[in-house]
Amino acid sequence: MVKLTRLLHASLLVADLGRARAFYENVLGLAPNPDRPALGFDGVWYDIGACQLHLLCLPNPDPVDGRPAHGGRDRHTALAVQGWEELKARLNAAGIAYTLSRSGRRALFVRDPDGNTLELVEAI
Fold first, then answer.
1. What whole-number distance in Å separates Cα of residue 62 and Cα of residue 64?
2. How far apart are alpha carbons 39 and 1 in whole angstroms?
3. Residue 24 to residues 18, 103, 111: CA-CA distances in angstroms?
4. What are the strands, taking DSSP E only, across the chain?
5. 36, 32, 65: which is closest to 48 by C-alpha?
6. Is residue 1 part of a domain?
7. 41-65, pLDDT tens digit by residue?
8. pLDDT digits (tens, 9 = 90+) for 65-95
């Protein structure tokens, strides 16, 4: 019997690693994991609980234009957030657009500088 037991990491493609790191580190507060091996392309890994988020600086084969305005109707990675109100304040202060979840949960959808959608859900 095959049984998937947990998510290990999610990878997102980015075009400008410095710009992406500014968003993930300065706005979302993530710290890079120094153990990322040399893979032949730029990138950064972030630890999020028992999982990781990998940013890969590689050409993106997917179109960025024409994506749904509401990230909940697009591919997205969901992350639990403590300090949800502070996160909204940071996004507002940085002028970063987001949409609130239409489910009524305390969750929002935001796109990183490369159009990757994150669902940020209040951790309870």
1. 6
2. 33
3. 10, 25, 11
4. 9-14, 43-48, 51-57, 76-81, 98-100, 107-111, 117-122
5. 32
6. no
7. 999 999 999 999 999 999 988 878 8
8. 888 888 988 999 999 999 999 999 999 999 9
* 100: in domain: yes
Nearest partner of 79 among 51, 42, 37, 38, judged by Cα: 51
Which residue range forms the structural domain that includes residue 14? 9-59+68-122
* Domain harbouring 21, CATH code: 3.10.180.10
Q: How many domains are there within the chain?
A: 1
Give how far Cα 10 sits from Cα of 1, 46, 59, 124, Å.
25, 10, 17, 22
- What is the value of pTM for the model shown? 0.92
90 phi and psi angles, rounded to 5 deg: -65, -45
CA torsion through residues 14, 60, 68, 103, sign: negative
